[in-house]
Amino acid sequence: MTPVTRKVRVKVPATSANLGSGFDTVGLALDYHDELEFTLSADPVNTAAQVMIEGEGEDTLPRDETHLVVSTFRRACQTFGLGRVGFILQAHNNIPQARGMGSSAEAIVAGIAAAATLLGGMALGATSAQADGTVVDNTATFTFTADDAAQLTSRTLNFYKIGDYVKYGTDDSAGYGVQTYAANKTQVDAALGTALGTDYNKTGIDNLAKALADGKLDQSITRPWAEGNTRKFAEALAQQQNLAAVTPAPEFTVNGTSATVTLPAGIYLVVDNTDATAGVTKAVPMIVSSGEVKDGVLTNPTKGTTVNFKNSAVEEPSKTVSATSVSLGQTLTYTLTGHVANPKPETFVFHDIPSVGLTVKADSFSATVDGNSVAFANYFTTDFNSLSDYKGDGANEFTVTVIPAKLAELAGKTIVVTYKAVVNSEATGNDVSNKLVKNDGSYDTVITKLFSFSF
User: Fold this and answer.
1) Would you say 303 and 143 are in contact if contact means Cβ atoms under 8 Å apart?
2) C-alpha closest to that of 278 among 222, 380, 350, 214
3) Gap between the Cα atoms of 245 and 108, Å rounded
């Protein structure tokens, strides 16, 4: 497991349970605090503990592994999966030793809280252990890019904060951790459980911080976006009910093939509520975050980030025919070519309109995917209900539709469908034609000259 910060400061109060008739029953936190700063060694070979003490106990407390804070911190790190690390402990003690003011309890709480906080607060929330941390509320700029301006314009988006950044310490000694945004913790935990398993949907810990510290949430920088734990997490989270959205909705400012939005620093789920069109797909849910991570440690939490907006402009389909001239009774072969968008579209359909004089051979369909032959019936369905006896009339269409369950497999791939049509006795005039409906409603029309003979 990797720590999300290298330095943390913990502040723990004195306590007393010696309260008259409430002896060992009623407890009270007192206005005395020990402040302890833990700094992890950057050298993986160095696993020693260096202890510095100021104030109460500076002349009597041990400065080695027997120090109660050190031994508790070691056990907590082992429990949380961090392993043995080198660190410097600077203890500023104000709680008197052996005076009934909870110095031993303070030492145990401090060791556990420090280990948990170094790992992003996964075992204890920052406030539950009174770790000296504050949520970063400064803003960051999130930039979304696209291949085509149409992918960004007129989008209806919801932004859901799922992770806060927490600052520990000040100035040059500051470190940063992650904790789940409280308003959406129930939904985040449930989605992590779906994506990563029950180990990441436990009570009493920060499951998001644990998943990040364990390296379970990967980045999908390049297509396809249908794989990986973060994709599973995003999809599961988008299905959760009663997520608290950022309000008021932030302004999504589009400038050509990029768009920006300004939000408080942190981790967000972005959901596209825009209906898909023939030319642009709906974006898949996205997990985005500000900040910079170096060697597994979060730094500069307000640094802007740039991500690809995860939808696609749909390429226009095309059509070809096997011959430029034909006679009655002969057969033409038509080829339909299309590119399935990535991320997967909600549907993919070829709309084909044969002219008068063409009879489609329903049993002649075949297909390839990226040049490899596939069993047509396993990937596509056809619908000839608008045609009478499979004959064209120049107005009504038949369709070739990708089976919905195959869309994810075909996302980002080129499909080619071929079929045959016979020139029948109803062919009149100088030609027969076939029209493929394009995304914008226009047609890709192929025309074959018709030869006729007089006897």
Assistant:
1) no
2) 350
3) 38
pLDDT score, position 34:
84
Q: Looking at residue 227, what is its pLDDT?
A: 64
> How many angstroms separate the CA atoms of 97 and 55, rounded?
11
Q: At what angle do helices 103-118 and 68-80 cross, to 10 degrees?
A: 40
- The confidence score (pLDDT) of residue 442 equals 86
- Supply the pLDDT for residue 18: 47
Which residue stretches of the chain have pLDDT < 50?
17-27, 121-132, 221-225, 454-455
Q: C-alpha angle 306/309/312, rounded to 5°?
A: 145
Tokens of 179: 């904790």
Name the residue type at position 206. Answer: D
140, amino acid identity: A
Q: Which residues contact 185 (CB under 8 A, 6 or more apart)?
A: none
* CB atoms closer than 10 angstroms to residue 180: 28
In this prediction, residue 401 carries a pLDDT of 97
Print burial letters for 380-402: b (CB count within 10 Å at least 16), e (below 16): bebeeeebeebbbeeeebbbbeb
pLDDT at 280: 85
C-alpha to C-alpha distance for 283 and 309, rounded to whole angstroms: 7
